[in-house]
Amino acid sequence: MHQRELFFKHVAQTSPAPLGIEVVRADCATLYDAQGKEYIDLIGGISVANIGHRHPRVVEAIRQQTDAYLHVMVYGEMIESPQVRYATALAKHLPDNLQSVYFTNSGAEATEGAMKLAKRVTGRTKMIAFNKSYHGSTQGALSLLGDEYYRNAFRPLLPDVWHYNFNDDAALAAIDTNTACVIMETVQAESGVIQPDRSWIAAIRKKCSETGALLIFDEIQAGFGRTGSLWAFLNYEIVPDVLLLGKALGGGMPLGAFITNKKWMDQLTDRPVLGHITTFGGHPVCCAAGLAAFEALLDEKWMEQVQEKEQLLLQALVHPKIVSVSSAGLWMGVTFASAQDCKKVIDSVLEKGLLTDWFLFAPHCLRISPPLLIHPEQLKKAAALIVEACNKVL
Ligand code: PLP
Q1: Any atom of ligand 1 within 6 Å of the Cβ of 112
Q2: Core-most of 16, 131, 249, 250, by most CB within 10 Å?
């Protein structure tokens, strides 16, 4: 049986129409399939490969760590150098109130940990989340997800979770002394890259401080230079109480983290002890890979090119069928009149060797979130292919 048939038979499917590219190699911002076809990767594994696929420093760090040890013990018991070094490096680039890092397996687990932390620290249960937000697919994270179509089949979910629209003042009024946390993406990803208004997000920060609700920023997609700043919250000059990281955090290996101050994090060690347990969270190979990726991102100064590359794309992505482009750094939603139009363009450029995608809550928007090190010539070619597809299929 061919690999394709075995994939459909034995590998669990999450949608009726997977991309189904038989990938055999990935380097920088290019994927290669079994037929020898090349694809420009315009989505970077959905904001994972910020420093590209298989960066040599990441590959070398993985090799060195596999020579030393793999998993040795559940999280938090042993002093594992990759965890210590990576947590220290992250802390060096974070504000004073975000100095204690809990490494997890995934973004969803980071969300779960943060929700538990908020309950434990405040003794409250009410949580405020946002429509069209995504924080993961586990039951707690799903309770926060802002779309009834995706939530409904899995009810009952967590009680006392309230959803508001992004940038809506009604959310402000809802934050009170019963609120454990407000959880939001610093830039809303799956609604098609929507940024908060500066005054609104500042007012959310203020209301959280006044009421004692924890402000949790999910930067699982927005972090690691995607918006041109290391962390997207730097763009708004406010600081969250808890930060969620994932995706690019692991440099291509599975890793998430929730980060807060030491005093609050220590509450997970007490009443009950072992307030959050993970076997593989902070896996030494993933932390070694993530640290190498983080250092490469900073040393090689990829963030400094983000704005120029953003402008290059914005200037090239002009066509009567493109309704608008919302962008936050090297991260864009290209809006079409309908989901059908968007899909036609995605399918057409895929044939030509350009990998894009749509957004979970905005299927009429084409996703752009390439490796930050993508070559400008690749970006020009990608934009030209999108414009050409608009001419051809719309
Ligand atoms: N938060 C955001 C903003 C995400 O985009 C995702 C994943 O797409 C998650 C959380 C969940 O991360 P994971 O898929 O690693 O569980």
Answers
A1: no
A2: 249
220 lines ligand 1 (CB under 6 A): yes
Q: For residue 367, what are its two tokens?
A: 């996703």
Average pLDDT across the chain, whole number: 98
Report yes or no on whether pTM surpasses 0.90. Answer: yes
- In total, the chain counts a number of residues equal to 394
Q: How far is the CA of 245 from the centre of ligand 1 (A)?
A: 9
Atom 8 of ligand 1: nearest residue by CA position:
136
Atom of ligand 1 nearest to the CA of 190: 5
Please count the other Cβ atoms lying within 10 Å of the Cβ belonging to residue 12.
Answer: 4
Does the C-beta of 390 come closer than 6 Å to ligand 1?
Answer: no
pLDDT tens, 119-146? Answer: 999 999 999 999 999 999 999 999 999 9
In this structure, the residue with its CA closest to atom 13 of ligand 1 is 107
Q: What's the pLDDT tens digit per position in 160-185?
A: 999 999 999 999 999 999 999 999 99
Task: Tell me the pLDDT band of 260, cut-offs 50, 70 and 90.
Answer: very high
Intra-chain end-to-end CA distance of the chain, in Å: 38
Confidence of residue 1 (pLDDT cuts 50, 70, 90): confident
Q: SS3 for 354?
A: strand
CB atoms within 10 A of CB 152: 9
Cα separation, 101 vs 98, whole angstroms: 8
Taken in order of first residue, the domains within the chain and their CATH numbers are 3-54+301-393 (3.90.1150.10), 56-299 (3.40.640.10)
Please enumerate in sequence order all residues whose Cβ is within 8 A of that of 258, keeping only pairs 6 or more positions apart, or say none: 102, 104, 110, 111, 113, 114, 117, 242, 243, 244, 245
Q: What is the mean pLDDT of residues 34-48?
A: 97
CA distance 257 to 168: 28
Decide whether any atom of ligand 1 lies within 6 Å of the 290 Cβ: no
